[in-house]
Amino acid sequence: MQFLLSIAMRFVRVVFNHFWLLAALLFGSTAWGWHQYLSAHPFNNLAANHHTVWDVIEYTIMMAPLRSPMVQGPDVPWLLNLGRVLLPFIFVGGIFKVTVLRTATEKLVNQWFARTFSQHLVICGLSQAGFALVCELLKKERWVVLVDNESPPARLPHLQQALAAMPRALQNRFALIEGDASSTEVLKMAGAQHAKELYAVTEDDFINLDIAAAARLLNPALQADGKASQIHVHFKDYVMREPLKNSYRLFDSRTLAGRQIVNWYPADAPWLAARDFSKPPHAMLIGLGSLGEQVVLQLARTAHYACGQRMRITIVDSKAYEAGKNLLQRYPMLDPSVTPSRFGMPGDEGNQLDFPLVELQCVQSSAEAFCGDGFTIVCEQWDIPGAIYVCLGNDIEADRVGKMLDIALERSFHAAGVVQTATPQCTIVKAMRRLTQVNFAQNENFMDNGANPGNVRVVEVDVLRTAAASVITDEQERLAERIHNEYVAYSREKDIKTADRSPWHSLDDEARQMNYNVIDHHLVRFREMGIDVTARDTKDGRLSLTAEQLGLAKQCFSENCEAFASAEHRRWIFDKLFFGWRFTSATANNKSAKLNRYLVGYESLSEDVKEYDRDNVARMFHFAQGL
């Protein structure tokens, strides 16, 4: 019965969407039926076959309000009979389409249509994140129901433009419900009781939590067997998310976009390709907003090298000193003045851990003013950056600053005597938020403007679609789960008592994030081994390498095993400090108090812990071969 109802409602939806086309076809076929009838019969003072086009049109129009002359006889054309039956309904339907009842009719059709969905996805809130999620999900041919309490939603014109660019088959997979998404009645209209996943993506964190709570009450399957990940909650408040992170699948579009931007366009790629480790890599950030902050964290999270160099990061912002101070207060492991004792560690001499793990410098200047002498001074001081991330809130300004940086870079390369190469020596990444530019013909969420040969490549990254794609894709999730399962098997083999052997779906947010970070750092290791790869080279959970490349990487690892293991340990320490862990001199770790005895330098570790770090690096080759 449910199947038949679904088919019927989809038929209604098709008729509703193509109403005027169907009306035109029916009118034309009825007119042809009248022509056939009048050609064979005298009718209404007209001799047979003595009628005009206007006679045919007049009689056809008169059929709609049931005012046409009666036709008799056994040989009435079937097209004429069809028009006699259906044209009155088309007439009534047209009245509905052009009067004030149109909106109510659309609402009713959407509600009926949504209730026939099964295993669909419910998006609550047409925010920027919600807009991007709808577009990405429809691009993947998923059934989507959007719930928004504004009538009409503020971004509905943008969404309508995006829908108009889609194939008709994708448009028919979408329904809009207007109402309060935190209401169970509205969620029922959206079919949340049998939805596969729900995304709470309004602009307010606490409204998102109310929506998630209502969805759980309505659909207990969303919390069965530890599968709380089926409820995705957009949550920006990092202070409040700590007690909530194990109840829902919390995500922040800025964090996801920052991670992907750095993984796609790493600042260390030109430096590692040059194989000159006498000087450290350099990255530059223009704009220390919420997205820029996540770019800095991702750079610091992945910049741990076997050669021992530390990433240099230049931050340019009109309020750089104040914003930089706030950043270092929240993440003290980035502070240049920090010492190991800040985290309860032994002193530098006994600890043998070199702080800070990255080098930061803040330049307080507007973006456009910096592109002159300021840029030249920074390049002379810290070398030309491998990547410049333009994370300004305004797309027009970002585009203008990107062009100015392109000119400044070419000037700096010329002054440094760097010859033009086919491989870019610096990438300018412009983070854009253009809602209406949705191209469903391509799967990429970035646009590369670097077709012209030279030392500088300019790319645009769609922040919203990048974040949305990261939320809905399960590739990274599958990779991280396989990494965790390998760790569990390794811990059983080595009988590691302190290992967390919980199933993947039972892991807390911190453990999941640390597995994601392992994947990101695998790419850094391969680049340091001489293999030019980025996150865009991974597909279907596999990093495709030739046998020659894989052999080169394994040889480099065997020759520098201790150095790579030490870098892995520094990466692990950064993750632990990021999540608030501190050193303890006790013989056992304390997970509830976040105390760990291994937060010391690599040389201070016992041999069995060093062996664990070596094995952790060696498992990266499983990633290359496809986990």
Explain what the structure shows.
This protein has 627 residues and is α/β, with parallel strands linked by helices. The chain folds into four domains: 2-99, no CATH class; 116-251, Rossmann fold (3-Layer(aba) Sandwich), CATH 3.40.50.720; 256-472, NAD(P)-binding Rossmann-like Domain (Rossmann fold), CATH 3.40.50.720; 475-624, no CATH class. The strands form four sheets. A seven-stranded mixed β-sheet has the order 9-8-7-10-11-13-12, with helices on both faces. Helix 10 (205-218) links the parallel strand 4 (197-200) and strand 5 (231-234). It is elongated. The two termini are 43 Å apart.
User: Approximately how much helix is present in the residues?
Assistant: 40-55%
Q: Uncertain spans, ≥5 residues at pLDDT below 50?
A: 224-229, 436-447, 449-453
**CATH fold-level topology of the largest domain:** Rossmann fold
Whole-number count of domains: 4
CATH-assigned homologous superfamily of the largest domain: NAD(P)-binding Rossmann-like Domain
Biggest β-sheet description: 7 strands, mixed
Mean pLDDT: 78
Overall geometry comes to elongated
Class by helix and strand content? alpha/beta
Number of helical segments with 4 or more residues? 24
Highest CATH level, the class of the largest domain: Alpha Beta
Number of strands: 17
In percent, how much strand structure appears in the residues?
5-15%
Distance between the termini: 43 Å
CATH architecture of the largest domain: 3-Layer(aba) Sandwich
Read across the widest sheet, the strand sequence of neighbours is 9-8-7-10-11-13-12
Q: What value does the Rg take, in angstroms?
A: 31 Å
